[in-house]
């Protein structure tokens, strides 16, 4: 079957070199230091905004976080107690972010830098792209125009935080995010159940095929997809796995679960990176573990922006 083994080895080495080089770019940007964005032009209480997808109420109570057979930073699994909260049913879209920008005159970190991180599907690697920002997510020649219902990308943690403040909300803690994704089912690996594609049905926008060589796109998309087109979780939340990874308010630490309080935890008080959750259109399960799993923790420097990370917001549950 393998008629040209030498050529296959050369190709694998070449792809490996590209991937490593791209990863170095990715990691280097994570360490960049950038000034915090300017204050908002208007206060959140004076803003008007549309929330077409609304929010979902998550009941207060006891939830499981972590996974004892997972990486060190998701151990030990433990039970926590959370107050009730409301979480956006979808990720914040281009249309929603555009409304925020129009109302406030806000300029994102990527726009001020003049460049941002992009995973280039053609080059099959990560690259720092001049002119990449939320309006041109992959750089010049790309556009968010015509994609109002796609999740906004090329937003740093500071950009997401600014939007949340304007909207009168906040970013979820990583523990709120996991509770919303996992629900009360202690065996669940994905927001919909225990297997990636039950009944051979695509449940999320993920990378299918060998990363980074080729995304087969059998779920219908290579790159971001409109929010809300895949089946919701049992509590009515969309895209908690795949599409774009999501910023949380929590600082990252490898030993967070050893140190957190068991009631309404928020995570460490400081750090170098913020936790992101849910995986993205780049996430693959070819290693047996996927970033899309409800317990998986990723991290990014808060100054970083790219074309595979976005966010959703939460607010405190209104008392009855």
Automatic annotation (TrEMBL):
PANTHER family: FORMYLGLYCINE-GENERATING ENZYME, SULFATASE MODIFYING FACTOR 1, 2. Signal peptide: none annotated. This is Serine/threonine protein phosphatase. It comes from Blastopirellula marina. Pfam families: FGE-sulfatase. Residues 262-285 are annotated as: Disordered. GO terms for molecular function: formylglycine-generating oxidase activity. Residues 55-315 form the Sulfatase-modifying factor enzyme-like domain.
């Amino acid at each position: 079957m393998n008629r040209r083994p030498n050529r296959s080895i050369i190709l694998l080495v070449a792809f490996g070199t590209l991937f490593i080089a791209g990863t170095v770019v990715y990691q280097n940007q994570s360490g960049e230091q950038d000034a915090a964005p300017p204050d908002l032009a208007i206060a959140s209480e004076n803003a008007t905004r549309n929330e077409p997808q609304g929010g979902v109420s998550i009941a207060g109570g006891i939830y499981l976080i972590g996974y004892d057979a997972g990486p060190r930073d998701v151990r030990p699994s433990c039970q926590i107690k959370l107050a009730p909260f409301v979480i956006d049913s979808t990720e914040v879209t281009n249309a929603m972010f555009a409304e925020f920008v129009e109302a406030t005159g806000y300029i994102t970190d990527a726009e001020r830098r003049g460049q941002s991180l992009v995973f280039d599907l053609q080059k099959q690697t990560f690259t720092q792209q001049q002119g990449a920002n939320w309006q041109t997510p992959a750089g010049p020649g790309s556009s968010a125009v015509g994609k109002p219902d796609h999740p906004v990308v090329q937003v740093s943690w500071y950009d997401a935080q600014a939007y949340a403040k304007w909207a009168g909300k906040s970013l979820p803690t990583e523990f709120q995010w996991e509770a919303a994704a996992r629900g009360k089912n202690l065996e669940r690996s994905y927001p919909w159940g225990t297997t990636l594609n039950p009944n051979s049905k695509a449940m999320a926008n993920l990378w299918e095929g060998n990363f980074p060589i080729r995304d087969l796109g059998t779920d219908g998309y290579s790159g971001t997809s409109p929010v809300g087109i895949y089946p919701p979780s049992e509590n009515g939340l969309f895209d908690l796995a795949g599409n774009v990874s999501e910023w949380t308010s929590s600082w990252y630490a490898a030993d967070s679960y050893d140190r957190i309080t068991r009631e309404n935890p928020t995570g460490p008080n400081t750090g170098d990176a913020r936790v992101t959750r849910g995986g993205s259109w780049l996430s693959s399960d070819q290693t047996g573990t996927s970033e899309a799993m409800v317990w998986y923790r990723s991290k990014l420097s808060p100054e970083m922006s790219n074309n595979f990370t976005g966010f959703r917001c939460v607010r405190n549950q209104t008392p009855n």
